[in-house]
Design a protein that fits this description.
Largest sheet: 8 strands, antiparallel
Strand content: 15-25%
Radius of gyration: 24 Å
Strand order of the largest sheet: 1-5-7-8-4-3-2-6
Shape: globular
C-alpha cells in the first residue's frame, strides 16, 4: 500500500511536471518561436544576370525552393532579400508579413534589413535609401496582390513544374521591394531596384507580364494566362537572428490553414504527455 507521504510526493512530482509543461507553453506563446531551416533537393530556380541599384552585373539564382524546419515540416519559400547569403546554421523567428514590414515604423525589421551593408553598398544616390523604396505599405499591398493572383501560376503543383515562371515570380518580388510603385519593369531602374541585363527573351517577357499586371491591376491576360481570380493566403516571414545574418524567406499557406510556430508542436506533445501521465497516476492511487 502506498503511504500518504509517498502519495503526496508522487502527486507533487506529477503536478510539477504538468505545471512545467503548462509554463513551457505559456513561455512559447509569449516569445517568438525560433527554428533552424535546411534546404532540400527540391528547387524551381534559374540563374539570371541582373543589376541591383548602382552595382555591377551579377548572376543570381531566382526562384523558389523547399526548406525544412526543426520539426521536419517541409514547405516552399521565396527569398525576401536577394543580396543576403543563406547560411545553413542560422536560427529563424517567424512573424506576419505586415508586422515584418510595418511594425515599429522606420525601425521595422524590413527597414533594418535593407539598411545593412550589402544594400547600402549598391544604392544609387543617398545611401540611406539603399535598395528598397521604403514605402512599406505599398510593398505589403503589392506583394499580396502578386501572390493572390500569380503565386498559383508560378507554382504549378508540388513539383514546381515551371522554373521560368518561378524565377520570374521571384524577380517580381524583388522588384516590388526595390522600385517605385506603378513603375515596375525588368528593363529599367525606376528607383534603386534591379534591372534584367540578361538576354533570355522568354524570361524578360514573363517578368514584364507579371509586372505590367501589377502596374495596371489588370490580371486577365498575363502572358496568355487569365489570373484575374484571387486566392487568399496567410503570409509568414522567416527572418534570421540576427537580422541579415542569413536570407529572410516568405512562406504562404491558403487562408484558414494554420501554420504551426516552430517548436510549438513538440511543446504541445510534452504537455499532453504530462496530462495523460497525471491522470494515470491519479487512477492508480485511487485504486490502492
Amino acid at each position: 500500500m502506498t503511504k500518504p507521504a509517498q502519495m503526496i510526493n508522487k502527486f507533487s512530482t506529477v503536478s510539477g511536471f504538468a505545471m512545467a509543461c503548462i509554463l513551457a507553453l505559456g513561455f512559447s506563446s509569449a516569445h517568438a518561436a525560433t527554428t533552424g531551416l535546411t534546404t532540400t533537393a527540391n528547387t524551381a530556380t534559374e540563374d539570371r544576370t541582373v543589376r541591383f541599384g548602382g552595382g555591377s552585373d551579377r548572376t543570381v539564382n531566382f526562384g523558389s525552393f523547399e526548406v525544412k524546419d526543426n520539426a521536419n515540416n517541409a514547405f516552399w519559400v521565396y527569398c525576401l532579400d536577394p543580396l543576403t547569403t543563406y547560411k545553413a546554421n542560422a536560427i529563424y523567428s517567424t512573424d506576419s508579413l505586415s508586422n515584418f514590414l510595418t511594425k515599429d515604423g522606420d525601425n521595422s525589421a524590413y527597414n533594418k534589413l535593407f539598411k545593412t551593408s550589402q544594400y547600402t553598398a549598391v544604392a544609387t544616390g543617398n545611401a540611406a535609401t539603399a535598395y528598397d523604396n521604403r514605402d512599406t505599405s505599398t510593398v505589403n499591398t503589392k506583394l499580396m496582390a502578386l501572390y493572390e493572383h500569380a503565386y498559383a501560376d508560378a507554382k504549378l503543383g508540388t513539383a514546381q513544374e515551371s522554373t521560368l515562371k518561378s524565377a520570374a515570380f521571384q524577380y517580381a518580388v524583388w522588384e516590388i521591394e526595390g522600385d517605385l510603385a506603378g513603375s515596375y519593369s525588368a528593363d529599367s531602374l525606376t528607383g534603386n531596384g534591379l534591372r534584367y541585363t540578361g538576354t533570355t527573351p522568354e524570361f524578360r517577357t514573363q517578368v514584364n507580364a507579371y509586372l505590367t499586371a501589377l502596374n495596371n491591376s489588370a490580371w486577365g491576360d498575363v502572358n496568355g494566362a487569365n489570373l484575374s481570380a484571387k486566392t487568399n493566403y496567410t503570409y509568414t516571414v522567416y527572418q534570421s537572428d540576427p537580422l541579415g545574418g542569413s536570407q529572410s524567406f516568405l512562406r504562404v499557406t491558403a487562408a484558414g490553414t494554420a501554420v504551426p510556430e516552430p517548436g510549438s508542436l513538440a511543446l504541445a506533445g510534452l504537455a499532453l504527455f504530462g496530462i495523460v501521465y497525471t491522470r494515470r497516476q491519479n487512477r492508480a492511487a485511487s485504486a490502492i
